[in-house]
Design goal:
It is a single chain. The chain is 78% helix and 0% strand. The protein has 428 residues and is mainly alpha-helical. The two termini are 56 Å apart.
Length: 428
Amino acid sequence: MDAFEPFASLALAGAAGLLIGLERERSRPPAESEAFLGGARTHPLVALGAGLATLAARELGAVAVAIPFGALVAFLVVSYADEVRRDRPRGLTSEAAFLISFLLGVVSLAGVVAPFTRKAFVVLAVAIVAAFLLSSKPMLHPLVRRVTVEDATATLAFLIVAVVLVPLLPDRAVGPLDALNPLHVGILVVMISGISFTGYAAMRLLGPRRGLGVTGLVGGLVSSTAVTLSMAGRAKEEPAIADAAALAVMLASTVMFVRVLVVVALVRPQLVGAVAPPMVGAALGGAAASAALWSRARAARPERSAIVLSNPFELGSALRFALLFAIVLVGSKAATVYLGTLGTYAAGVLAGSTDVDAITLSMAKLAGDTVSHRVAATTIFLAAASNTVVKGVMAAFAGGLRFGRLVIAGQLAALAAGGAGVAIAWLV
């Protein structure tokens, strides 16, 4: 392989340049609008030239790469200055693409990544990502316009906490009953906020006019309670869309059951076998109820949604959740130690009435330690059931009796199926 390595590496450089060049060729602007620097032929040539320069540098030193790189930069500067002089609209995307093609050619022939298979993966992966970014202008620009200053500030602040501060937390048991590990609490808060942010980003990307069903699905990733309250208000104001609003609530609640299972799988995979029967059962029951509501709601075809969801990366929300999680964790362990299994179940019902994630994380952490897997799974289901009942009461009070009956009927179907799953988990 050593004898043929230069040929394989040059082929790799050419392939990487060709990927970028093909995208540039496809995105070629009309001749009269702006200049076209190069496409399917130029980029591979630049990458091959960089590869040959790197190959020569093995004998001549870094100057063999520095000279052609400087020549390329000079050409790009002259071309850009000429476009500015002609008052043509220009960005720096094409110039950046040329620099990437050159550097990919350098990496293809350099020994910074070994063996060849890994180098090929790195070079082609970068080329593919670059081609995707180059072609994603129609998608990224509208998305960026949807991002508010508050979103950007909250997200950056949270990322500072997640990347800089959380790793500094002590990794040891502290607090009452040694129930808290600050590092674990921080990591779990980041994980839950990340899942919530997925739904929030989907809401921002889809926009507010995508139908109540889609709103329920993605809103359930953030807060099924927020979806319930918002849809109750809509149903109260517009009784004609009560069926569609109830569908959105049921979809959000169904997503909640799936979300709980995903959280358990991420935190304590050994607990999935015990949690899956009730959660999957409840999700299937919720899906069946959603299908029935969808058949009733097709005629309404609502086009607007008015759910207001805050950025889950907002620092205050994350800190409040961390505090709630710590309280629930200590309370759950105290209930288990001093009151036994019934105390654990009571803690699940009480905590679940306000937040399912905190008790889910608490039980996942304690499972196999101070509580059995089946007790932990049952407690998580009781928390989800408690949260579901509270949302049903909210729906009836805020949305009227007709809307409340629709939601409660669907939620009872989900809870019945989940209860059957609990029985299966205890019998198996």
